[in-house]
Design a protein that fits this description.
Blueprint lengths: L6 E2 L4 H6 L4 E2 L3 E6 L5 H14 L4 E5 L4 H10 L7 E5 L3 H10 L5 H20 L3 E5 L1 H8 L2 H17 L3 E6 L10 H8 L2 E8 L7 E9 L8 E7 L2 E5 L15 E2 L4 H6 L4 E2 L3 E7 L4 H14 L3 E6 L4 H11 L3 H7 L2 E5 L7 H11 L9 E7 L1 H7 L6 H14 L3 E8 L13 H4 L2 E10 L2 E11 L9 E6 L2 E7 L3 E2 L7 E2 L15
Parallel strand pairs: 3-7, 3-8, 4-5, 4-6, 6-7, 14-18, 14-19, 15-16, 15-17, 17-18
Antiparallel strand pairs: 1-2, 8-9, 9-10, 10-11, 12-13, 19-20, 20-21, 21-22, 23-24
Length: 506
């Protein structure tokens, strides 16, 4: 019975997850992509990971000098002291040999010399991990697809026979020599990773990674976002790869406001998502802040993912409402993460959300997540497709982890007819809290109602909603309302049931 070959880390944890363990040990893999997509960075992380594990690594470079590689490593804060670098670019030696060639083409002789040097170096050092950078020079020296394929096959047999896990880097230059170069290489390699880059109409360029082939192994297919930053390559899988942190307890979580709890049927069930829907400025974000502060008061963590409001504005608003946002921010029980439009990818956002719910150093878990706002999320990535599907995957992951998630969605309009929601509420949300403005006795007031709750009963009344220095105030049920769901509510009752804004509100 054939033995199962072990997997070794790529040096990038998320890429290991995508590949279901990493590269197959003692096999040859291909990393292909145009210049600037991150091939060298990935290769160096692979070798550095091996060096940490005590495995000798060899970087064979045909295209870059030792100094250039060390500069790349230094830009990430790495040292290549534990990695052997074998340069094959020796301009003085190359000119001397070219002067001696009379009967043979220089390239024909140079290819054999190049391969011989590599083999001798590997035999001398006995490395466990090898990077060959890059195949484009070999392709040019071969001057034909048949000879090129034979040389790659010879390299594969040599490395595999010596227990080397090998990465061949291909920058795809010279593909005009033969259209089938990609297929030749991919058929030979045990695994194939393709790095891609594209420029968006707005914002920074977008980089992707795809696993084209991973022989004998399961892997997560599709395009995964990646970012090149100081410290190396970071990969963001396109969908959730998780081990459950916790299971929903089925408990009902209080908002910390007795009247609000009464309206929504006692609280929000853990592991559910809630859409806070209404026009701008009506109090949606403040309601999410109420739940978050209540969670922090219980010693649980809450995280805001902000696409619109600045941290300064949030804290100022919290001060005005009497919410202890600053205290909880300093203690780490509340966290605010800002996102810049055009600089974030869907998979990167999803990874940051899932990362945020990991218990902190003190073992405190996250119980409330707020995405503010859904409109900002959709507008910050205008070049992307299927954002709502990806958001649903994120919410399902949060639900399985027992986290309460709030989505804030602004509808256009203030007092007039309101247009439909930016997304299908029934697809994303288990619960829907509806906020409205209404006019009565010469004043603009706010109303709140629970229009959907999958997990249990709730009031079907409409209550007045008010924000003051005492926080959120919820009035008595107002039964003399008409037209709330159409977006133009009218209150026809008297003023006895309205919140008295001149006094203490009681």
């Amino acid at each position: 019975m054939p033995r199962i070959t072990r997997q070794i880390s790529t040096g990038i944890p998320a890429l290991d997850d995508v590949m279901n363990g990493g590269f197959t040990a003692d096999r040859l893999s291909l990393v292909e992509g145009y210049p600037g997509t991150g091939k060298t960075t990935l290769a160096l992380q692979f070798l550095l990971d091996g060096a940490k594990a005590g495995e000798r690594g060899l970087y064979v470079t045909l295209s870059e000098t030792r100094d250039e590689l060390q500069e790349i490593a230094a830009s990430h804060g790495w040292s290549l002291d534990g990695i052997d670098i074998h340069e094959l670019v020796d301009q003085e030696d190359l000119h001397q040999k070219q002067a001696q060639y009379t009967m043979f083409e220089p390239a024909e002789v140079e290819l054999g010399t190049t391969i011989d040097r590599i083999l001798r170096r590997v035999e001398t050092l006995g490395p466990r991990r090898v990077v060959f950078d890059s195949l484009s020079e070999m392709r040019l020296l071969a001057q034909g697809p048949l000879r090129y394929r034979r040389q790659v096959l010879a390299l594969k047999q040599f490395f595999v026979g010596r227990g080397c896990t090998t990465l061949l880097l291909d920058d795809k230059s010279g593909d005009d020599l033969h259209d089938d170069n990609d297929q030749h290489l991919q058929s030979i390699a045990h695994g194939v990773i393709r790095l891609e880059q594209e420029l968006n109409h707005y914002g920074t360029e977008r980089r992707h990674l795809r696993i084209i082939k991973h022989r004998g192994r399961d892997f997560l297919g599709g395009r995964h976002d990646l970012v090149l930053q100081q410290g190396g390559m970071k990969v963001y899988p396109r969908k959730t790869i998780e081990s459950l942190i916790s299971q929903p307890t089925g408990e009902t979580v209080s908002s910390g406001n007795a009247e609000l709890d009464k309206l929504i049927g006692g609280g929000i069930l853990s592991g559910t998502s809630t859409l806070l829907l209404g026009p701008a400025g009506v109090g949606k974000s403040s309601t999410a802040m109420q739940f978050s502060c209540a969670a922090a008061d219980r010693g649980e963590r809450a995280v805001f993912f902000e696409f619109e409001e600045s941290q300064h504005s949030m804290l100022t608003r919290g001060d005005g409402l009497g919410f202890p946002m600053r205290k909880h921010l300093e203690s780490g029980l509340i966290e605010i993460r800002q996102f810049v439009p055009g600089e974030t990818t869907p998979a990167e956002f999803g990874a940051k959300v899932r990362e945020s719910i990991q218990p902190d150093d003190q073992g405190r878990r996250v119980s409330v997540i707020t995405i503010d706002s859904l409109n900002g999320y959709l507008n910050s990535m205008p070049h992307e497709q299927y954002l709502v599907i990806q958001l649903n995957d994120i919410l399902q992951s949060l639900n399985r982890s027992g986290v309460i998630s709030f989505l804030i969605a602004a509808q256009h309009g203030m007092m007039g007819q309101l247009v439909r929601t930016p997304v299908d509420a029934s697809y994303l949300a288990d619960n829907v809290l509806l906020f409205r403005y209404f006019e009565t006795f010469g004043e603009i007031r706010q109303a709140i109602s629970m229009v959907k709750k999958r997990s249990g009963a709730h009031e079907r009344t409409i209550r007045e909603f008010n924000l003051s220095d005492r926080g959120i105030e919820i009035g008595n049920p107002l039964r003399d309302f008409h037209g709330v769901l159409t977006g133009t509510p009218k209150y026809t009752g008297d003023g006895e049931n309205l919140i008295d804004r001149r006094g203490d509100g009681r």
